[in-house]
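Re-run with default settings, no changes from the original entry. Doing this only to confirm the output is reproducible before filing.
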Amino acid sequence: MVDQIRLTKWLAASLLAVFVLGVLGCNQAPRESVIGFQGLTMGTSFSMKWVDTDDSRLAGIRSEAGVLLAKINQQMSTYIDDSELSLLNQVGTGVKHPVGAELMQVLLLAQQVSDKTNGAFDVTVGPLVNLWGFGPDGRITHQPEQAAIDRLKEKIGYRFLHLDPAAGTVLKEHDQYVDLSAIAKGYGVDQLAALLEVHGIQRYLVEIGGELRIKGLKPGDEPWRLAIEAPQAGERQVQQVISIQQGAVATSGDYRNYFEEGGVRYSHTIDPRTAHPIRHRLASVTVITDNCAEADALATALMVMGEEQGYNFAIEQGLKALFISKADEGFETRYTPGFDPYLQESIGG
């Protein structure tokens, strides 16, 4: 009888232990981690990271991202002879040329930013970019002749590009050449973010060539922390660290792509209004907005405007922007009020 009681107690204790372990096992959420991959696109690198419990979706998303990026390149690259944009550039004056919905979307956004910035951003600046050696025609070592600059300047002007979204056509009033290099990477980032959201992913960081889009928190409810480079040629150092859990981040700078002649430094950032490379002290601008295509274009526009005009414009428009300018020693950093919540650490000065 005693043995039977002991056996009954042992069985009850065992069943209770199994029940408790089962409840704990059911309540314990799968462990989260950051999943991702990287690759090459648009003449630069890209990466996609997201929070997941395993990597079962990685191969499929990698494949879909490759197809998507190849499609965007075929739509908007000036380096592909038969891209949709190249075909538009080959069309003569006064022809209503049909374009796809995606290219029209980017052209409309570019025109909106051009209007807002009074032409500091202008996708028709392409011929000048090429003339100064920063486009698909290849690099140069000597400043172009002023006569050549003046001839091309007559063709520059986003208002000469007539968009008809209802008909899906573009008409060039003159022989315009469109260059989307200052907005296409941002658009690509937005499309990669949309791809992740189609898969139900709401916590991610996607990036193309340093332009980023972020949503949600990392495991442990931590925001994503991003390093903004010090604008120094020949070396990579961190100037500022920001913390962000939602938004798009784009940076424009003149410190890596340039040539020198006679002690003069010619930046790859061309001011459409003067037809010459920028010559002010502003070295880089970082902008945070809701979508990366807009952030990409606005960062370029502020970079063209310079440290004073750009900062005043950002204040007037309520933009979230960080400006890093050359100083007698090192760099000076200032930012708009909207940028303040993102600041974490300042490194250097």
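The longest strand covers residues 33-41. The CA atoms of residues 90 and 171 lie 12 Å apart.
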